[in-house]
Amino acid sequence: MYLLLWASQSWAAPEGQASVEHYLFYNTQTPIGQPSVFRGHIGLEDGPFKSDVWLEVFGSAEQNNRGQWLVRPQTLTWERERLSIGYQKHRWGNLDVLSAVDLLAPKDMRWGPLIPVEMARIANPSISTRLQYLKWRFDGSIHIGPSLNALSLSETPFSLFPVEGQDSIWSYFSDFSADPLGESLWPSVFDTVENTLLTAPFSLTPAASSNFPVDFSIRSDWSTINRSFGFGLAWLRSRSPAIELAPPLQSILQNQTLPNVLSIQDELEQIDSPFQLLQPHHGHFGLWYSQLIGGFGVRTESSFQTNIPYQTTAFTWQTAHQFQGAIGIDRVISTNIVISSEHRYRSYIATKPDDSFWLTAPQNIESALNVDLLAFQQRLRVQGATLTNWTFKELAIKGVVSWRIGSHYKVNLGVLNMIGLSPEDYLDRIGYRGGEIGYFSDNDCVFIQMDWVY
């Protein structure tokens, strides 16, 4: 059980606003050395220039108080009527949680479902232009430079390989067969892998072999008072990196045998970088439509992607075509009750029957439900949300109660509970065959959030 304390302040400035936040995780089973993160935010607007930048400082006593810095623009743009240049968030479609088309903006995945959806999108360097003709709007953009989901290998509770479980894998390696001399030399290789896990930055950098770090996208939207339609076409680097283990280490895991002393020097020279992140390009075509029908809002999306990568284990990957379809239904009951539901079907096409899938499946069916209740002149807000993966029989439940005090203060108390098949041990993570909710299901938490707004 984790306890998350989240304090936030914001104040007005002549040309913008700024805020400060602090996170502290506390594990009741191992209360010493849990990670904490400080986040600072500043936003400015002056004529055509707009900025919104986050600064994060992370540290953990388990890692000898080693700190990390991360500066990440949410937006940092220069805008004119038809042209925008800088760090921008590009969004396709109209679904919030289970979108089938919203692939352009990378996602911050380091804190799991604790990050609000609107804050999870990461701005990336791009140049965009737009044109309006009657009820049609046309947009084109070129994305340049880094454009990768923010992952954590071992830094946060929602890491792929948390620090607290790594002893089991080193113990497992020690049982592999090897000649006496090789057995004495290979611990240094494991130290290299462990150091990589401990020092990998929050936002991992893709390997140079990703080639051509540029994306292209075009979209068009048509809208009236109660309906809208849009489509888009893009050629993108995968926002979810393909993670690949160095071939010598892959061979060790598969054969459970350490190389003999005659080849050990060659093997050591190949493991300067135990992990490699690749961003293969893929085609992306998407459609979206929304309409008011009676007292309901209906939103639909569908997409097709070519050669999208998927992990077969934690460190091996393949590519396949993918189809996605999604629908959202909203209902507003008076001004105090809002109910929203979203559902998504996702299928990988042209895969082999015996292919393995890590944290996903050949076909995935997911549902999300959100209920908002407002009372006492909207000073009290009760929010309940669920995320269900029907394929893996997994469920995440999140509840938040908010109370606004006066005009400037708000206190939020929340809880997150995840139900699913969690990995049995550290090694089980490498070939895990459940979904994302189950993979992180040990991170149930309660949290407090305090806001001051000027």
Strand content: over 45%
Assembly state (oligomeric): single chain
Gyration radius, in Å: 23 Å
What number is the mean pLDDT? Answer: 76
| Count of helix runs | 7
Terminal residue distance: 34 Å
Secondary structure: helix percent? 10-25%
Work out the number of β strands: 21
Name the helix and strand elements from N-terminus to C-terminus, one letter apiece: EEEEEEHEEHHHEEEHHEEEEEEEEEHE
Net shape: globular
The profile of the biggest β sheet is: 19 strands, mixed, barrel
Task: List the topology elements.
Layout: E1 2-13, E2 16-27, E3 36-46, E4 49-60, E5 66-79, E6 83-88, H1 117-120, E7 124-133, E8 136-144, H2 166-174, H3 180-185, H4 187-199, E9 214-223, E10 227-237, E11 242-245, H5 247-255, H6 264-269, E12 275-278, E13 281-293, E14 296-313, E15 316-333, E16 337-349, E17 363-375, E18 380-389, E19 394-405, E20 409-419, H7 436-439, E21 445-452
Parallel strand pairs: 1-21
Antiparallel strand pairs: 1-2, 2-3, 3-4, 4-5, 5-6, 6-7, 7-8, 8-9, 9-10, 10-13, 11-12, 13-14, 14-15, 15-16, 16-17, 17-18, 18-19, 19-20, 20-21
Task: Describe what you observe in this structure.
The longest helix has 13 residues, at 187-199. A hairpin with a 2-residue loop joins β13 (281-293) and β14 (296-313). The protein has helices at 117-120, 166-174, 180-185, 187-199, 247-255, 264-269, 436-439, and strands at residues 2-13, 16-27, 36-46, 49-60, 66-79, 83-88, 124-133, 136-144, 214-223, 227-237, 242-245, 275-278, 281-293, 296-313, 316-333, 337-349, 363-375, 380-389, 394-405, 409-419, 445-452. It has 454 residues and is mainly beta. The chain is globular, with a radius of gyration of 23 Å.
